[in-house]
Amino acid sequence: MSGTRTVNMIDTEAVAFMKNPAVHPDLRIMLASIIFADSEGITVLRKGQLQAWLAHPGRRRASSGFVRSRIDGLIEAGALAEGSTPTELRSMVAYGTEAESGEGNGA
Question: What global pTM score does this model have?
């Protein structure tokens, strides 16, 4: 696994970082998909959680259409897997790790 690094973040620090209005919405989604993923690379969030994390300052939530568009963009870019939704993010980082270890490529 050359070129990979292990990064450890405390959940509360990660959430505080994601709530920072200067952090791009796509980065917030990617961080959530990686940091809170289970062993299969899937992050399950409460309904409306991403809307709250992506809200502009002074607002309680981002629109569901905005959240969906950001997820769709990340799927198209190859950062999230097909089937990702606002309540279930599928990290391609985890899938890539699985494939490299021989579990996901038929080896």
Answer: 0.75
CB atoms within 10 A of CB 92: 21
How open is the CA angle 7-34-63, to the nearest 5 degrees?
Answer: 135
Calpha distance 107→23 (Å, rounded)? 39
- Core vs surface per residue 16-45: b (16+ CB within 10 A) or e: eebeeeeeebbebbbbbbbbbbeeebbbeb
Residues 1-54: pLDDT tens digits? 566 666 666 778 887 887 788 899 999 999 889 888 888 889 999 999 999 989
Q: Is residue 5 exposed (0-12), middle (13-18) or buried (19+ Cβ within 10 Å)? A: exposed
Q: What is the dihedral of CA 72, 74, 77, 81, to 10 degrees?
A: -80
Contacts of 9 (CB under 8 A, 6+ apart): 17, 35
Q: What single-letter amino acid sits at 58?
A: G
